[in-house]
Fold this protein.
Amino acid sequence: MRLLQGYRAVAGGERLPSFAADRSRLDEKIEAADRLLCRCCLCERRCGVDRYNGETGFCGAAREGSYFFEHILWGEEKPLIPSHEIFFTGCNMRCNYCYSWEHVEDPSGGRILAPEEMAGLIDRRSLEGAINVNLIGGEPTVNLPYIFKVLRCLQRPTAIVWNSNFHMSREAMSLLDGVVDLYLGDFRFGNNECAVRLAGTPDYFDAAARNFMAAASSGDLIIRHLLLPGHTDCCLKPIAEWVSRHLPGVPFNLMFQYTPFHRALSCPQMCRSLTEEEEDTARRMVEGLGLNTCLWNTPLKGAAALPSNDNREELKTTITFRPDGRVGIMHLYDDLLDVVKMLGRGYP
Ligand code: SF4
């Protein structure tokens, strides 16, 4: 099996991204996406509001997209780096541990760029060495029509990575076909009940499973799962079993960097780190099912800090002191690294 063959060819400059090879299809897709916006059904919530004419639905996203942070990242799976991440505002889920909830739950403070300006930014990051543009959020799907307009304005061939919670509608999924080079899917919950309880999201598992099947036949795919404390049997197990049954061979990245933020800080079950036993059990479970873990991320411990730059106001460093005595740091900038080294034994 040649891993991520199509994506690697685009990211390595051997061939054009699909959308760039046929821009007329992108024009048709933009028209179709705008039609979906008129009675919004971009995601499985199907709010039915007229976002094209100023109404907003559950995600709060407007007709044109906005973003709250962008940078070149070196901490993703190896074939993806250096990756130009753009964090769009608005999301169709409400995970109680969300680390960027201020921008996700209220998109009104996002930075708005015209599609040509955003495309210019992506082209500049590509010239600086990014091998893809990694569209994330919040959730990129709620900004899909805007993102398509941005892609139409790109001057440089850029691999498109759709970094999503996979709760998009069938219609949105079919519009992404032929545009996305690599789906980076976050399979968050292994059953519909946990998705409702922890993220206020109905029908999550069924919709995500359907979309993962569609993604596998549309482009390259990496499935991620962030292990949650106390959710090995109810969430990881059904996800890992589903992947082994339906998408064997698809790279599966089990992530251990759970940190309680937002409402999880006042939820006794969620306000703790993973235990070593939980991590070991999860690792054995995934390996026992024979999942493809070749792209397993290196743990965040030891990861590079963010370069200090003009965007730091949008992504504030957050330090949490947890009841179990551990200290969590999100969005560490390089000029704070020495302080952390002095404070933390053995970190990073
Ligand atoms: S993208 Fe989803 S949550 Fe947002 S308005 Fe449309 S259907 Fe509702």
About this structure: The first helix runs from residue 5 to 11. The beta strands are 67-73, 83-88, 132-136, 159-164, 182-186, 220-226, 252-255, 318-321, 327-330. The two ends are 35 Å apart (CA to CA).
